Amino acid sequence: MLRFLTDLPVRIIAWISDLLEITLRFFGSFLDRGNFEDSDRPVGFYRSLNRKLGQFFWFLAQLISYPIAGFFYRGQRRQAFLCSIPFCLLGSSVMASCLLVAFNRERILNRYLARVQNAYSKQDGPKGVRAAMRWIGDTEFANADRKFLYSLVEIQNGNAGSAERILESLSPRDSTGLGIAHFWKASQCVGKLEESTLGESQRQELLEELDWHLERASGVRPEQIALLESMKAFWDGRLDEAESKYRKVFESDVSQSLGFAALLKRLGKDQERQTVLRTGAERMADGLRADPWNRAYRVQLASLYEGLGEWGRAEQVTLEGYKIHRDQDSIDAYLASLERRAEAALKEPRNLREVAYCLVKFLRTSRAGPRVQDIMARSLLRPQSELLELQKQLQQWLVEGLDLPMVHLSLAFCKGLTGDDSLRDWHLEQACRYEQATLGLVQPLIGAMQEASKNQQEMHERMQRWQVVEER
Amino acid sequence: MDRKITIALLIAAVAMQIPAIGLILRQIVFAGLSIDLALFFLVFAFTVLTGIVSPFSRAIADEQSIRVRFLIVIVSAAVGACLRGVLSNEPVWVFRGAGLCFAALIALVSGFSKNRLFYMGLLLCMVPLSLWKTAPWLHSLAQWLASSFAGCLLDIYKVFYFAKGNVIGLVSTDFLQNESCSGLRLIYPMVLLVMAYGCFKGYRFPRFLYLLVVLLFWAIVAQGAWIAVEAIIQDGQMAKVSYNSGTASMVLFASVMMLTWSGDQFFSAFSGPSSDKESDTSIDARKIELANKNNSLESRVSWIALWSMLVGIASLGGWSFYKGQWAQGLNLRQSEAISTVESLKLESAVEGWKIGQATKSSESFIPVFRQTPDWNHREWELTPDQSREGSMKLRIDGIWIALPEPDWLWRWYGWKPDLVLSDDKGSFSFGLKRSIVEEAYVVTKGVRIVGDSTLPGPVVQVSLVHESVRPITEKQRKEQKELHARWVEAIEKQLGFGAAIGDSIR
User: Is B498 contained in some domain?
Assistant: First the structure.
């Protein structure tokens, strides 16, 4: 039954031969080149068209057969053929390269996409941005997800503005957009709602916008969306709903303790706030014990202790972080914590023991930098009674053995401002005796205090006088 | 008789354009385009010599070989060029028109064929090459193609790169390949050499066009290959790898010329023995006879049209002579112009903006199509005091003899126009966009370095640029324009060359 299959290859060859013959017969009228020699003779339209087609056919035939036919040329033509080999070879290579790249465009761009993902995972923002520049302008390739990836590497590169612009373009007020970009936009709206300068109509518009984006938000954990919904409920005046929603989030995610505590503070539930902070701190401390390298846990725990007013424990957590990581980030985290501690201490009513502590710590960590100058001016350029109380606290710290050179240096400034020059010089001498390098801090600090005390004539004169003594 | 009248009118047409020709020659000398100038004189002398002694041309070197019809075409092109020059106040176009008339004059006197006249006219039109206003645009297109081809090679070689318009940057390093992506190198000498080659071989127009296309193709490919090689060497290196660019340019030049010649051989081999038809020698006696016959049939109307056009060109030149339009006697001195630009000093602060020398300007390069051997790019950063937002850049680029399109530099780096270019007393302002986040607003103006601002002459481009990832507001644009006007005024005062030189130029 299937015997005809054995004949099939022979038949196919026969069909192809017939086809070729028919084609050649069809173009037969064109193939006679002799007809074109008398080209000067005027001819009709169809004859002219026929001739052109024939010429084109011959041109193509010659072009295709050129690489082989060339070897059979003779005389000058053969020489010209040999000389044209570089042109033909290189020209073909150029065309082939372009075609190769054009046909593999998608694959090549995917290679760049992988490079961006790799750079993002290694937090190498600049390289990620440069790799993304290859495809970000390609409207077909750069879909919403890839644009979002680009915004992430832009953030790593320190270009938050560019990232925001992309996210805005990914969260338009129409049916398109990316769920995660809508989530970002909703977070933006919540951030704007916190601003106290908003009018009622603006607030209403923002709430509508928040609602719109929140409905389309996706691509994040449900708790994160629930958190925004809770804030929306709060701004809508549905306080119980806001609290219950946030509580659910807090119960499943301890890292939301601070946010929940802030909400409870707004709702006037201070006792509950303390409980939440305490619970959060305990759970976070457990987490940190299991994973001491986790920076996010460490920052959260320090903030929770700060929220509870337990500054010593917060400092201990950040210092531990520095000992583990030994990098600029952990130094910055420590200094930021110290600054928040100083700000809290300088708030009325002042906690002068804390102020004295922060002053000494700042002198040790930031030397005579602008941050220290600012804290020093705000701590020391105060009424006489407060200055005396501060001196007492500093002396107490001296007894407790806190950083002796810096405590003496602070006391020297206190004495200098109260006009007790002999004790001022004695404290400075003691500071230098413990640590000679302390002397280098004095002159810049005196200069800063002179500048800051311009409105307090008496103190200003005392600082001026001190400078004269130093210069002598 | 007709021939004598035509020659007399051609002499008058060329003579009346002497002031414009003189001005252009002075500008060429000012620009220091010595290579172009030398090449032009050499190739032109070569053309004349081959026209006289070449065995190709003598066979038809009688006056009948140039038909009136062809002369009319050449002279009408000359009329167009002269008119454009006079109307747009660009003596370079008058120079080109006069060049065409001059070529027709030589061809008519020496009895050259129309083929030779075509080459001579083309050569004279090509000078001064570097003063062409279209050069930035042509280079921009060619460089884009070259950079794209370099990109293909880098993709094949798996070197990661990105392109900012015409300029390639590597993912592994933090700078752009500005030097190698600054325009097609040595393209004008290449074009002149190919024209001379075509003229020597006596090729007709289609083959000449083929040769030019092949030349451009290889010039672009070679430039792309060079960029790719440089990028491959540079890949992964944090510091800029230096190399001898002079040697590289010579290798590039030799490669392109060799491949173009190889392309010409392809044409010869491909078209077979009948390719000899392309040369003038193949025109047989029957065809010459036919041409003579046709020529004799041409009516007096053609001659009268030709003479009218020549009288028109002569009158146009005479009118310019009478008005003293080009005869301003500009005494241009490049060294003074350059030192004036280099010694420019700006105030350290103005209206809440502090100004300081830019520390890092990645998007600045020395274009190969510059019109002077020296190129001055200076950039300052304007940082606002606390009450303002954003930062701007003030930059000076030049010297130009003929200022290109105001947005040429930004287009070079891939910026696309966003807002319509607006002109306010010679000061242009336009909005630009790039990638999906970058926006810019530019206010720019060409500031004359010397002499009367109504005449063409050396200028520098003074631009104030505001780049941002946020939309630039109308208020910011207005403020930018005002600030730019202030800086331009201050710069104009310093670049005015002072009284000492200003007095000596008239």
Answer: yes
